[in-house]
Predict the structure.
Amino acid sequence: MTATVDLAERIRREHHKVEEFAVRMHQRIAERPRDNFGPWLRHVGDAFERFRAHLLQHMALEEREGYLTAVTERRPGWSRRVDRLRLEHRQFETLLRELHLRLGQLRPEDHLLVLDWSDRVVALLGYVRHHENEENDLVEWAFTEDVGAKD
């Protein structure tokens, strides 16, 4: 039982790190000036790249650790939820790639495009937060509830 508790705790710590990166990213977006986007684009770009790299690494760790597989082994009735979370990992990879490419195309004078990119990043941060909370709940329920309980 201790290995599953350790796994659940490790996942919680990892999700906390993702949240820290997301908060910093959100703060950078909130600092967006009304014009003269040049310096801000460099700073927000650096923050986005750190967030992107960490989230990709985090998702790879989750897949490699196989905790979602452990959830379905303990709770077979939850396999559809787990499959959806795995699919969301692929979708996050797509969104991160698209935002990364768009960021590289932005120019300081691209007022509307900068606003659009910023709004898309804020939406992504919300999706990530919801996803991470759902994973936390799933792990918590799967590894701490009575194993004999019905699904």
